[in-house]
Amino acid sequence: MPKVPKNLSLLKRSSNRQSNRPPPTSVAPTHSEEDDMQQISLKDKRATERKAQKDAGACFWENLGGKLFYPSLYFDNEWRLSLTTIFKISFSIRVTASFWSIISDCDEVYNYWEPLHLFLFGRGFQTWEYSPIYAIRSYFYVYLHYIPAQLLFPLLYTSKAGFFHMIRCVIGVFNLASEIVLYESVFGNPVHCH
């Protein structure tokens, strides 16, 4: 068994050193028309095989020249979606979710929408978490929804369902902004908010 060097960069693969040329023969062949036709068909066959290998990526290893080291400047740059594409995809997902997503948890209704309804319309349920006796929840998160709700209320005061969906759209816009900042911090230059 051959000895393997400790530095694997010195190791060259024997398959990279092999040539596709046939070994030289000492006897000179006699030529005839039939031999010439076979050689032409053999050349065509080899050319077709080389083209198929090149199309399959076999040429990549031949171009390395037997080296195990491949300089990074030849690698493709990372491909990524543009920021406008990310914005369009995320925006369409958020708007679609705000209109067609169901309310999947009772906490969303009774712990956030009902107190907001109480602030806006003067009536609504108050859960035990918000009651002065226990007071384990803060109204801060509800107030974060109350600020844009006060701005939208004059526009949509006739339709509570429309108002509900617009508040969900505002929440979606904040989610969209955070997703874009996350995308830029992971895949590109971070977005600086000044």
UniProtKB/TrEMBL annotation:
It is a multi-pass membrane protein. It is an enzyme of class 2 (transferase). It is found in: Endoplasmic reticulum membrane. Its EC number is 2.4.1.-. Residues 1-38 are annotated as: Disordered. GO terms for molecular function: alpha-1,2-mannosyltransferase activity. Belongs to the glycosyltransferase 22 family. This is Mannosyltransferase. It comes from Acrobeloides nanus.
